[in-house]
Amino acid sequence: MAKYVPIEMVKSYSGKICEHSDVYFAKKGDTLYTGKICNPRDLAKKPFSADELARQTKFRQAIAAVNALTEEQKTAYATAFANQKKYASLRGYMFAQEYAKLS
């Protein structure tokens, strides 16, 4: 297996790297990384299960709840967000809280 030396803008590689799909770039916190989607899912052969569809619906409901927040609620979340270290963005924190309410 070849040894990959990351280019200057990409500080690290993670996971299996292949050559048969498109490259994507993503940033999580302060880390910029790339990846490739290996063997993408063919929905005609393997459609989503009931559990997967339920998770997708729950995700959409949480996004809708975040988008429907009032300025007062956003301010309350911003105050709580300042006192935590787990989430890198306010929107991610608000999403996590709204998603937890759906459980």
What report would you give on this structure?
The longest helix is centred in the middle third of the chain and has 18 residues. The chain has 103 residues and is α+β, with helices and mostly antiparallel strands. Strand 1 and strand 2 form a beta hairpin. The chain contains 3 helices and 2 strands; from the N terminus they run ββααα. It is flat, with a radius of gyration of 18 Å. Helices cover 42% and strands 12% of the residues. The chain has a two-stranded antiparallel sheet with strand order 1-2.
List the helices and strands and how they pair.
Elements: E1 23-28, E2 31-36, H1 50-67, H2 71-82, H3 90-102
Antiparallel strand pairs: 1-2
